[in-house]
Specification:
Layout lengths: L1 E7 L5 E7 L9 E6 L6 H11 L3 H14 L13 H10 L8 H33 L4 E4 L1 H7 L12 E5 L4 H10 L3 E2 L4 H4 L1 H4 L4 E6 L2 E7 L2 E2 L2 E2 L12 E2 L6 E2 L1 H14 L4 H14 L2 H14 L2 H14 L6 H12 L6
Parallel strand pairs: 5-8
Antiparallel strand pairs: 1-2, 2-3, 4-5, 6-7, 7-8, 9-10, 11-12
Length: about 325
């Protein structure tokens, strides 16, 4: 069971204080302050709408609103990843042109993102085939998965770092495979080879001369590394019915929504990923998302993000989805 109170922690911002009686292990109550009305500032919402809306007039209004309060020279870091998609959407409706001023700078940012995406996808071709050839189920997750499976045009979503999801049981073999093709493990390898220590880890990072770093992940949550007792996104989300194997769009959408609800520097791009996903998920994928939300205890944070992002983009999820998320969230023992 749980109890909720309304509280005002600033002059005009309503929040919701949610406390569970105890966690799943029977420990003390866990109190979580959740933003009730919105997860995003006015400036962030304007950028999100300008970048993602399908209505030209709405895009124009949001673009003008965002420009009144934003300067590319002093732009907060969390907004920068949306600029390639912003440029693409403005160009789609003929709202930006030329190579001078903000138009030229946004065009350059878009081109850089396109080049970066091509480089990272080429790098992925050197990462995935050696793993799959050894029988290791592996799939891209995070930036690369979103760029490939959610966004309609490559270059609209920057891939900052390649992350590959594998099954925990294949880690030792995966380490040998990557070493065999020139990747060097960052840090001390001892915890990865010790089962008692490895259960507290969720990722390993690698470098290879002259190339961006990559990560292997076998367990993750929206806020990062997952401990062994934490319900977490894992290799069970890999869809093996397609070639090459992919993390399902349902799991990608779930993770994006939960990340948007958690806050932090990745909140805004995660909200954008969720906004894109809302337009492409099929009824079957919504069913899979709900099943994953129950399994990984992410219904409550996902529902919070859904409630903030869907109205902005005038997207209406299936009514049964909202009802099911509410039911699942009421039974969650923690704000995962």
């Amino acid at each position: 069971g749980s109890v909720q109170w309304r509280a005002t922690v600033s002059r005009d911002t309503p929040w919701l204080l949610h406390t569970n009686k105890c966690d799943a292990a029977g420990g003390p109550p866990i109190c979580v302050i959740m933003h009730e009305a919105t997860l995003l500032s006015d400036e962030q919402r304007a950028l999100l709408v300008a970048a993602l809306s399908d209505d030209g007039a709405t895009v124009l209004d949001a673009w003008q609103s965002w420009r009144r309060h934003s300067d590319l020279d002093t732009l907060p870091g969390d907004q920068f990843p949306l600029l390639p998609k912003l440029y693409a959407n403005l160009a789609r409706f003929g709202l930006i042109a030329g190579d001078s001023g903000d138009a030229g700078r946004l065009k350059g940012i878009y081109r850089r993102a396109w080049v970066r995406t091509q480089q990272q996808l080429a790098l992925a071709e050197t990462l995935l085939p050696p793993l799959t050839a050894t029988g290791i189920p592996a799939a891209l997750i995070g930036d690369a998965a979103a760029a490939l499976d959610l966004y309609p045009v490559r270059g609209e979503r920057t891939i900052e770092r390649l992350t590959c999801l594998i099954d925990d049981s294949t880690l030792a073999t995966a380490l040998d495979v990557l070493r065999g093709v020139g990747w060097q493990l960052e840090g001390n390898p001892a915890p990865l080879t010790n089962p008692a220590l490895r259960r507290w880890l969720s990722a390993a990072h690698f470098q290879r001369a002259g190339q961006p770093g990559i990560s292997l992940c076998w367990r993750l949550t929206p806020t990062g590394p997952a401990l062994s007792r934490t319900p977490a996104i894992s290799a069970r989300c890999i869809d093996h019915t397609v070639a090459p194997p992919r993390v399902s769009r349902a799991c990608q959408a779930l993770l994006a929504g939960a990340q948007a609800a958690q806050g932090g520097p990745a909140r805004l791009i995660a909200a954008a990923d969720l906004g894109i996903a809302l337009r492409v998920l099929t009824p079957g994928e919504w069913d899979a998302l709900l099943a994953a939300a129950a399994r990984f205890q992410l219904a409550r944070p996902f529902a919070a993000a859904l409630g903030a992002v869907a109205p902005l983009l005038e997207v209406t999820p299936p009514p049964q989805v909202t009802a099911r998320l509410d039911a699942l969230g009421a039974g969650e023992s923690r704000y995962a």
